[in-house]
Amino acid sequence: MKKISIKKGTLLQHKGDVNTMVYEVESGLLRSFSIDAKGKEHVFLFAPEGWIVADAIAPEEASELFIEAIEDSIVIVKERDVSSVDPIVLAKRISVLQNRVIRLMSASAIERYEAFLKTYPDIVQRVPQKMIASFLGITPEALSKAKGDKMRSSIKGI
Amino acid sequence: MKKISIKKGTLLQHKGDVNTMVYEVESGLLRSFSIDAKGKEHVFLFAPEGWIVADAIAPEEASELFIEAIEDSIVIVKERDVSSVDPIVLAKRISVLQNRVIRLMSASAIERYEAFLKTYPDIVQRVPQKMIASFLGITPEALSKAKGDKMRSSIKGI
DNA sequence: TTGAAGCATTAACCTAAATTAAGAAGTCAT
DNA sequence: ATGACTTCTTAATTTAGGTTAATGCTTCAA
Predict the structure, then answer these.
(1) What is the per-residue pLDDT across B66-99, written as a single tens digit (0 to 9) for each?
(2) B1-82 falls under which CATH superfamily?
(3) Does nucleic acid strand C have an atom less than 7 angstroms from the CB of B149?
């Protein structure tokens, strides 16, 4: 367990790494993301101050995710020891993921964007639009259009 | 903790229920699903023999999910006590959900269907197509078409 | 300071999947 | 057995979002 200071753009973890760590964000902002078979990035999680990022894989498996600093950050690095983690913390993450799966299946891009704004109002200003789009599962162009449409319709009072 | 026998079609849990239980399937098949704001069902999980179904919510919260028997089933019903659950079991579920989120964002309907066939080959024959479609996040019509296209292209050897 | 690269926006066009509708086949309760 | 449901399939049409491309802004390294 140690504390490290990392520059914006640094990759803390690559897909395929084994014996990965647990990263607790003291200051700054991290993201985890995957790269699919077509070479496209998909943001899985944003982790601001106080959040914990780690791959959910078994101890010896290769990681699925990349972890990157979006801002200069100070991060506490710990050994992974799943069996000692509070089950309640894990259950909460399951609940979050359950809701994300349901929302991906049932809500439109705009609806998911509005839900994101409500749930993570503090993160919106700190990350590029294209990463928010990626988190929502849409293209930056589609997000840009959705925001434009939303603005226009609210001006007209529709 | 008790063992119950339930008929196909029985609802074990409704959205909004509090003090929900943990259901361990001894025989038969359960599913959990949500109903969204537009009244549409979304299958969240299929649970055949040996699987456990439970809402991931905090003890006092209202449940998000319905749980229903797809076949006549025998189910062991236990009190929910998240803090006593093996963290490794929870971590595995997180891993499954992580992959599901990533696949929902990156794979097409047909790709998700093929992944489903590989991952749950035993379940495919036991549940109606429309529930598989619902699990994949597409309409029954789209799944039917995808299967037809797949068959046709494999005949032609494409 | 300036040029190159990355980012956001807009628009034209294209495609995957939703919607709607209709018909065939299976299941169920009476 | 018969009629009422439900499921599956197919097809026509529509729509949300993807792709491609052009334009103006930043940012940042040389």
Answers:
(1) 999 999 999 999 998 888 888 988 999 999 999 9
(2) Jelly Rolls (2.60.120.10)
(3) no
